[in-house]
Amino acid sequence: MSQNGHHYYIAGNTAEGYYRLTESILKGLDKCYVLTGGPGIGKSTFIKSVAEEVKGTKHFLEYLHSPSEPGSLDGLIIRDKGIALVDEQLIRHLKKDELGDAHFIHLSEGVDPVSLTQHKDDIVRLSKQLDRLYDLSYKTFNDSLRAHDELEDIYISSMNFNEANKLTNELIQLFYGNEDQSKASKVEHRFLGAATPEGAKDFIQQLTSDINNRYFIKGRAGSGKSTMLKKIAQAGEEKGYDLEVYHCGFDPNSLDMIILRELGIAIFDSTAPHEYFPDRENDEIVDVYKRCIQAGTDEAYAIEIDRTTKKYKDKMNEAISLLENAKNVRDQLKTIYSKAMDYAFVDQKKEEWINDILRK
User: Fold this and answer.
1) Does pLDDT of 325 surpass 90?
2) Which DSSP string do the residues of 9-73 spell out, in sequence order?
3) Per-residue pLDDT, 1
4) Which of 16, 147, 234, 241 has CB 3.0 to 4.6 Å from 312, enough for a Cys bridge?
5) Which of 65, 14, 61, 22 lies closest to 188 in space, CA to CA?
6) How far, in Å, CA of 89 to CA of 36, rounded?
7) What is the rounded distance in angstroms from the CA atom of residue 165 to the CA atom of residue 227?
8) How many angstroms from the chain centroid is the CA of residue 129?
9) How far, CA to CA in Å, does 18 sit from each of 142, 158, 201, 244?
10) Cβ neighbours, 10 Å, residue 334
11) CA dist 68 → 33, 190, 195, 318, 330 (Å)
């Protein structure tokens, strides 16, 4: 994995459907180049080739990973050049004024239409099947979230909110002190991880590899972790600090991590499915269960917790299985498109782009 960049997700398969956080990462960029076309025609390969061209240079890269196909890229940002290169699916929800100076690269022009016409019925059938599988997976993720809410209710009923507020204020004071920055805050929204056909994935270790002070939040569902992070983010924004705000890849309304690179600080929810433990000198644990939840709650509600946790995990596993089935269907679609694609056209477009944009 390249160390001259950051790897993260900007879209996710969530309890609210396919969810994008593209807007904030495009702000301030000069140009956005959008790759269009169906599956299997070389969009991710195009992006990877550009990344390889730039890797090892002075430019710092941001790799936007695909939540639906581990190993694939949905986009690349070269921020010091003011450039984004993205798959069209990342920007379909944006209005023209939100997209900025957009330039479209139509890789679909390299597809043989006659070949696709011969497989029209298969394409329609597989596309409908793919949509059904994704819709069902999102519904199942939502069912899992409802079970997670039940689990949260157990701990919320045993929550010491005064102590939670006190702990949050202590962290805000520790991080920011009484100083304000004399500038406007820049806030970028991303996903901490993603539900993929291979299970839950994240890039926490890579994203925090150069962070001096890492705070690992330990706790239970409903113990106030996300609320704490939202308040820390709000305080940082009010004081003019730049923030990377990482949302939960399962529930986009919940936060899982804040990174304050100006201060060398990262604080994140370090519980399953993204559970890590301190392994550096300055790493610290913030135990919200111990600090804010009534002692003995796990034991008092053990039966309810076990039952609800099982329901939550079963639905999560079912949803992941549906994503795996969706990937298999998508692979069949990619095979059809790839056989109709002239990849020399992709190479030509890629070289033109690199020469026109990167080598100037």
Assistant:
1) yes
2) ESEEEETTEEEE-HHHHHTT-SEEEEEE--TTSSHHHHHHHHHHHHTTSS--EEEEE-SSSTT-E
3) 38
4) 147
5) 22
6) 8
7) 10
8) 25
9) 12, 34, 16, 21
10) 18
11) 21, 16, 8, 15, 10
E strand or H helix at 213, and its extent? strand 213-218
Count of helices and strands (H, E) across the chain:
12, 16
Token pair in block for residue 194 = 């993603």
Per DSSP, the residues of 144-194 read HHHHHHHHHHHHHTTB-HHHHHHHHHHHHHHHHTT---SS---EEEEESEE
pLDDT tens figures, 151-190: 999 999 999 999 999 999 999 999 999 989 989 999 999 9
Helix axes 120-156, 302-339, angle to 10 degrees: 160
Query: Which amino acid would we find at residue 202?
Result: D
Residue-level pLDDT at 3: 58
As to burial, measured by CB atoms within 10 angstroms (0-12 exposed, 13-18 middle, 19+ buried), residue 78 is: buried
- Length of the chain counted residue by residue: 360
Structure tokens given for 85? 């290169």
pTM value is: 0.95
